[in-house]
Amino acid sequence: MRTVLCFGDSNTYGQVPGGSPLDRYGLSERWPGVLQRALGSGWHVIEEGLSGRTTVHNDPIEGDLKNGRTYLRPCLMSHAPLDLVIIMLGTNDLKVRLGQPASEVAMGIGCLIHDIRDLAPGPFGKVPEVMVVAPPPMLDDIKEWESIFKGAQAKSHELALQFEIIADSLEVHFFDAGSVCACNALDGFHIDDEAHRSLGLALAGEVEAIGWK
């Protein structure tokens, strides 16, 4: 059996668009659950989503527990050995209070990749495969979240290119979630159940296409 860790934010946690942080799609509806079903019994898919998670930053309001880099290493050790780590982060780095351009968000993704390689939590102490997933761009209308994400909409459209550049430079896999799904209009930056399904199925194809030995 191969094991894949899905490391992300609210769009991995499955937060319902327009709902509260505790309004969450069911296990089988969230994209890691869809991925598990599509890959079948030969795979164990682990879901690690946290609303508000950043790549490498402590949130000055929500705290250091939202720092993806702080949590990643113990998370990897907890679930090792891992054959594949899928990272889908970046949206929360675009909050006004963090002030990150898309290129620096990509650098944060790069730090996480280096941390995975340093720890080498794959089978027999090897480095697992890594797949970077760029989140779908935010919509122009993000409702009451405008003040928190002011200016983030344009930057969110740059993430896919910047993530692809960092993924290529570090020789890891890349997928643009925006190629198969979009954010829901209820809040403009969360994906709905149909988008979760589309993303999970698309990622299953990407995972199966990796040259497993």
TrEMBL record:
Pfam families: Lipase_GDSL_2 (PF13472). One of its GO terms (molecular function) is hydrolase activity. InterPro entries: SGNH_hydro, SGNH_hydro_sf. Keywords: Hydrolase. Gene3D superfamilies: SGNH hydrolase. It comes from the Bacteria. Residues 6-196 form the SGNH hydrolase-type esterase domain. This is SGNH/GDSL hydrolase family protein. It comes from Fulvimarina uroteuthidis.
